[in-house]
Amino acid sequence: MSNSAEFTYDLSEMLPFEGLSSLRPGTSVLVTGPTMAGKDRLLYDVLGDGVSQNEAGIVVTTDGDGGESVDMVRSKAETADDSLLSAIDCRAQSDREETERDDGSCVYSVSSPSEFTSIGIGITDAFSRAEEANVTRGRLALTSLSTMVRYADQKTVFKFCHVLSQRLNSAGFIGLFTLNSDAHDEQTISVIKQAFDANIEIREVDGEKQGRVLGLGSQPTEWRPLS
């Protein structure tokens, strides 16, 4: 698959912020916020929106079940071609095992969130499935980098994210990654942020979830309520 400048990705329906209505292929976005702030739900919403538009959807889950993650994306989609849905399950008991489910979706098993080579192979297989289906657009979600940081040092996770960003660019996909801001020190967060094109910050004020975007303009956007 090759990158194309003829289209962009529009995330403004889920995230009404300046700059998110026309993301170029290859853009990688880090979503940060406290634990249980709704970051994962946001990523599933974004993937479900893409699948509804016949884009490929790839979930890399480091702390959940791959099949359940695929089902969650499907539940967010108005329509879905299950053959375009893939998950890389990083908490499986087996390693490098690919399972095609009855609905046509695929789950690739990896034994640990620190098995970066195996995770990369699973993502490559998901890209190949899309290419074989003549699908040139897609969205990848990784939840959560915080789990990876518990298994590997911050520099190793940064390198993984940097390489994956390059592969997203080659495929013409976009990627969104979550990180729990209350689980790491500022230095760790600062190092990992450098691997991404933009950052969506989420916070909660008086029971209301709010978000803002950094990196897509000269200044951060204003904080706005998130539904």
In short:
This is RAD55 family ATPase. The protein is an alpha/beta fold and about 230 residues long.
The helix-strand sequence is: EHEHEEEHEHHEHEEE
Radius of gyration: 16 Å
- How many DSSP-defined strands? 10
Strand count, sense and barrel status of the largest sheet are: 10 strands, mixed
The order of strands across the largest sheet is: 4-5-3-2-6-7-1-8-9-10
Report helical residue fraction: 25-40%
Annotated CATH architecture: 3-Layer(aba) Sandwich
Average predicted confidence as pLDDT: 94
What is the general shape?
globular
Number of helices: 6
Class, according to the CATH hierarchy? Alpha Beta
What's the structural blueprint in terms of helices and strands?
Layout: E1 28-33, H1 39-52, E2 56-61, H2 66-75, E3 85-89, E4 97-100, E5 106-109, H3 116-132, E6 138-143, H4 145-151, H5 154-171, E7 174-180, H6 186-193, E8 198-205, E9 208-214, E10 224-225
Parallel strand pairs: 1-7, 1-8, 2-3, 2-6, 3-5, 6-7
Antiparallel strand pairs: 4-5, 8-9, 9-10
